[in-house]
Amino acid sequence: MSARIAMLAALALTGCAPQAAPAPAAMAPTGKALAIACEGRDGWSDPAPPAKIHGNTYYVGTCGITVLLIATPDGLVLIDGATEKAVPGILANIRALGFDPKNVRYLLASHEHDDHVGGLAALQAATGAKLLARREAVAALTSGTPDATDPQREIANPFAGATVSRTIGDGEAVGLRDIGLTAHATPGHTPGSTSWTWRSCEGGDCRSIAYVDSLTAISGDAYRFTDHPDYVATFRATLAKVPTLPCDLLITPHPSASNLFARLAGDARLVDADACHFYAAGAVKRLDERLAKETAAQ
Length: 298
Known about the structure:
- This protein is α/β, with parallel strands linked by helices.
- It contains nine helices and eleven strands.
- It has helices spanning 3-13, 31-37, 87-96, 114-117, 120-127, 135-143, 229-241, 260-264, 275-296, and strands at residues 51-54, 57-59, 68-72, 75-79, 104-108, 130-133, 164-167, 182-185, 194-202, 205-211, 249-251.
C-alpha cells in the first residue's frame, strides 16, 4: 500500500477523508460537437449535447439557453434551469458527463424569466438541491410571476415556482472551497438580475469565469424606460459595474450573446479579458438608442 493510499484510508476511518469533485466521463463531448448540433437551432428547449468549457465548468443547457454545471470538492452547482421542457435534457447531459444529478448541491439563477428559470422547480425536485437567490429575485422565483417593476412583466410567461432556501447578497460568496463562487447584483434586465464569477483551473491554467446576466433593455409594449428614471439609473450602474468584474472568460444566459458556441468550437477566442468591457459597451449603446427612440416618439 502506498503512503498516499494509507493516508487516505486512515483519514476515512476517522471521518476526515478529503472530498474530490466527481470525475467526468473520459470522452466528454466537445465544443465543436455542440456547435454542429445547434447549427440553425436556437430554441429555448432545443436539446443540445454537453460540452466542457474550462476546468470544472461545463455547458449542459439547450441550443438557445445556457445552463452551467460547476464541479467542486463540496458538490455540484447548476446555474440556471432553462425551461421546464428542457429539464430531462439537462439531467441527461449531467449524466453524460459522468456526474450524478443527486450530487447537485446548489441551484443558482441569472434572472427571473421562464426561459432561464422555468426548469428550476423540476430540477430542484430531481436533485434535492438548495436554491440560492438575491432578495430582489425571491418573490418572482417562488411565485413564478415576474415582479411588478420588471419591464417585461406584461409579456413574460408564468413558470413553476421553486423554493428558495437562502438569500445571498451582492458580493457574497456561496461558500464552496477553491473556486470563490460569488454573486453580483446586476439589475436592469430584471430587478433581480444576478451575475456570477468563479475561478476555474485546468492544470496550471486558472481563469476567472464571469457568467454575466442579460443586459438588454427589452420591455412590453406599454413600458417606457423614460418613465422610470430610477430604474434607468440602476441599469446604468450595472453597465458601469460589469467591466469591473473578474472576467477572463465571459458566458451569457443566451449563448449567442457572447458567441459562445463558436468560441467553444475554436472558431473565436474563448478567453478574452476585454469581453466584459465590450459586452457592457454594447448594452450601453442599445439602452441609449432605446431611450432616444422613446423620447423622439413623445
